[in-house]
Amino acid sequence: MECLHFSLLCLKALMNNKVGIKAVLNQDGALDIIALATDSPPLGDKTLVMEMLSLMCYVDKPNGHIRVLRGSLLFFFFFWRNCFSPSLFLIQQWTTTGTQRRRMPDSGA
């Protein structure tokens, strides 16, 4: 766990300038990996992840927001699929079809 914490701190330090932010944005899967780090138990790690993801939403408009949502979707698929099924469906529909609204399927609950 300590290794993940220091890795997140190093990544955040790299993202403190435009060159570092562009490097992270240009790296395939970087935001997915950052989003998966949300599962880290320490609250400080979760805070670092949310700060980095929110920065990506702000810096790379509108693509950063979509890419962060896709990374979050990946996190939900790996860890919380059953618990957040309705939210997961809405995020998936939004990221694949833009802002079109679709009817949510019956969850059967």
Q: How would you summarize this macromolecular structure in one to three sentences?
A:
The protein has one domain. It is 70% helix and 0% strand.
Topology:
Elements lengths: L1 H13 L3 H9 L3 H7 L6 H17 L3 H17 L5 H13 L12
Helix pairs in contact: 1-4, 3-5, 4-5, 5-6
Structure, described:
The chain is mostly helical and 109 residues long. The protein has one domain. The chain has six helices and no strands. The chain has helices at residues 2-14, 18-26, 30-36, 43-59, 63-79, 85-97. Helix 1 packs parallel to helix 4 and helix 3 crosses helix 5. The model has no long low-confidence stretch (mean pLDDT 79).
Which terms summarize this structure?
single chain, 6 helices, 109 residues
Strand content of the residues, in percent?
Answer: under 5%
Q: How many strands?
A: 0
> What order do the helices and strands follow?
HHHHHH
Calculate the mean pLDDT score and round it: 79
Secondary-structure content class:
mainly alpha
Biggest sheet overview: none
Number of domains: 1
CA-CA gap between termini? 36 Å
Helix amount: 55-70%
Radius of gyration: 15 Å
**Low-confidence runs (pLDDT<50, min 5 residues)?**
none
How many helix segments?
6
What is the approximate shape? globular
